[in-house]
Write a structure and sequence with these properties.
Chain lengths: ~90, ~425
């Protein structure tokens, strides 16, 4: 699990970096890679955390859709990363 | 949660007025934003403008350090696209090697809001700084750093520059997609070696239409507006069609003279299905050797290989030297380059929309037609009427690359068939030509 978590945290950092730099294509690709790493970890979250994750992912997709890239990066690096650390 | 904007930051105002009085006047009179809020209830207060955060809500300095890192350490000059919260110019100016910093304003009203809410006085008063408006910049400069929020909020006047900056930012990713180490592309090349060995060479077509007009059909929604005209003059002006336009044209009873296909995308297979290809027995298919071999197999007429000027084709080109066409991601550009290399001095573009007019991704009859949002809330470009029309990030990049291509061919007249698609700099409109 620790290895999976580390890989997921790394994918998250990489995606956040691309969004902050405005590298759109790279960022979309990196976000998909992060989600691929993140989904298998969902089963390790408690019921309460799954609710938070769902809400955060919804917020993240909404931000990506309106091209609010710096907020996408914030959600990844500060909100979702925080959940992963818990 | 949100707080209304306080009065303008007096020091910023004073410096701008003193150093750039004309810009000050323009900024002070700027409008056009719908929703501006200053969010102080986050770890790092920032502006939220029309749904876009101007900078990080958590750590703006760290964010700006990353953005500034795109400028190499020893650079003596740099450009910053967007003002943001002011941290990127501030960080860059800490470098003693930097002698000149140009900060480009991508939207007057956004910049003015930032000057109202954040203290920019330190970098604004630095003698190395020049503040300019995007509309005064003909092209983008390197090395540069960019504030993504400011690009996203760019005004109509700054939209071309915005796209050029996004294009530059996406270059490493695009190159990686077309790198010779890409296993899928290598497989396509491997499968097509015998075709390349035995097929014709695109150079056979070069110079065959000196000083003539050539039509180039792309698969944008406006292509269908020209069917009647195309039918009426069929056979008199050569027509090159991109692969995606083949089926829609065929269904309208129009047979292009040359078909161009370049993509290693399995979707392309469907462009050639459910069509009786027998009438094309004498019409060449020009291809890049990364296409699926089934496409080449299905073509009943002559096939002609072309390369693009990329390292991907280096090995194959050495073994089987053949001609090259300019390519920048979209099949339209090599189709147009073919027309130019055939000798055309006038190229008429049909369905070259680079956007989604009327909320359609492609012309009717395209196998993967998608209904798109008809309002330009996400990516957009200006159409021939100066109105925003929705588009995709990749189309925007293709458009700006294509405009550069046009700029490099001043002896060729490029005419665009429709004003409903993206305005293509360097073209005139067919309807405006006497």
């Amino acid at each position: 699990m620790n290895v999976e978590k580390t890989l997921c945290q790394e994918a998250l950092r990489v995606a956040a970096r691309s969004f902050r730099l405005g590298m759109e294509g790279q960022a979309s690709n990196d976000l998909v890679a992060f989600v691929d790493n993140f989904m298998p970890l969902l089963k390790s979250f408690g019921e309460l955390d799954v609710g938070r994750v769902t809400s955060l992912l919804g917020e993240l997709l909404s931000a990506q859709s309106r091209k609010d890239y710096l907020y996408v990066a914030d959600l990844l690096e500060y909100e979702i990363a925080h959940l992963l650390q818990e | 949660m949100m707080k209304k904007a306080p009065s303008p930051h007096p020091v910023n105002r004073e410096i701008i007025n003193q150093r750039w009085p004309l810009i000050y006047k323009i900024l002070a009179g700027a409008s056009g934003l719908h929703d501006v809020a200053y969010d102080q209830h986050v770890p790092d207060a920032t502006l939220l403008i029309d749904g876009i955060h101007l900078s990080s809500c958590y750590d703006q300095l760290r964010e700006a350090e990353l953005q500034a890192s795109l400028v190499p350490a020893e650079s003596s000059a740099a450009w910053v696209y967007g003002v943001g919260s002011g941290h990127v110019p501030r960080i860059l100016l800490q470098r003693s090697s930097l002698k000149k910093l140009v900060v480009v304003i991508m939207n007057h009203a956004v910049a003015w809001q930032s000057f109202k809410h954040f203290d920019h006085s330190d970098w604004l008063s630095d003698s190395r700084v020049d503040l300019v408006l995007a509309e005064a910049e003909h092209d983008m400069h390197t090395p540069f750093a960019a504030i993504p929020s400011c690009l996203q909020l760019a005004s109509d006047e700054a939209s071309r520059l915005r796209d050029l900056v996004f294009l530059e930012l996406s270059t490493p990713f695009t190159q990686q997609q077309h790198h010779p180490e890409n296993l899928e592309l290598r497989q396509r090349l491997q499968e097509n070696v015998e075709f390349v060995r035995n097929d014709g060479d695109v150079t056979e077509l070069f110079g065959t239409q000196e000083n003539k007009t050539i039509l180039v059909a792309a698969a944008g929604p406006t292509l269908s507006c020209h069917y009647e005209w195309l039918l009426s003059q069929q056979g008199s002006i050569p027509l090159i069609a991109v692969d995606a336009a083949l089926k829609p044209l065929y269904e309208a009873g129009i047979q292009p003279d040359i078909i161009m296909t370049i993509d290693a995308n399995p979707m392309v297979l469907d462009f050639f299905k459910n069509i009786d290809l027998q009438p094309f027995q004498t019409r060449p298919l020009v291809y890049f050797p990364v296409v699926y071999s089934a496409v080449l197999d299905s073509w009943p007429g002559p096939r002609m290989t072309s390369y693009a000027d990329t390292v991907l084709y280096g090995e194959l080109r050495d073994k089987f030297p053949k001609g090259s066409l300019f390519s920048s991601g979209t099949v339209l550009t090599p189709a147009v380059d073919l027309a130019v290399k055939m000798g055309a001095t006038e190229v008429i573009l049909l369905g070259a929309d680079f956007s989604f007019p009327e909320g359609q991704s492609h012309v009717a009859g395209f196998p993967f037609l998608i209904e798109k949002e008809s309002s330009p809330t996400g990516h957009w470009v200006l159409n021939g009427y100066g109105k925003r029309v929705p588009t995709g990030a990749n189309y925007r990049g293709y458009l700006r690359d294509f405009e550069r291509y046009i700029e490099q061919h001043p002896k060729v007249r490029f005419l665009n068939g429709s004003k409903n698609g993206a305005y293509i700099q360097g073209t005139s409109y067919l309807e405006d030509v006497p």
